Amino acid sequence: MMDRKMTGLNLAASLNLTATIWEEDGAYVSRSPELGVASWGGTPAEALQNLKKAVDLYLENAEDLGIIDPGAHRLLNRSATFGRS
What we know:
Elements: E1 20-24, E2 27-32, E3 37-41, H1 44-64
Antiparallel strand pairs: 1-2, 2-3
């Protein structure tokens, strides 16, 4: 039997998050509903890029606080496909 102490959340091989982007008052707002992290930009692409940076900072902070395992934020799947509704 293997005895392993968990110091934080052990994430699987990759972390897939959703990005929701909408226009609001002439700017584009982006949000990751899973984390509650949001950002904005002048274009949808800029809003997404800024959200990715915000999510990275959020996850790095979670590592520093011991909430998730070290290096887990690097498992974030950064591919993006979007559809219009």
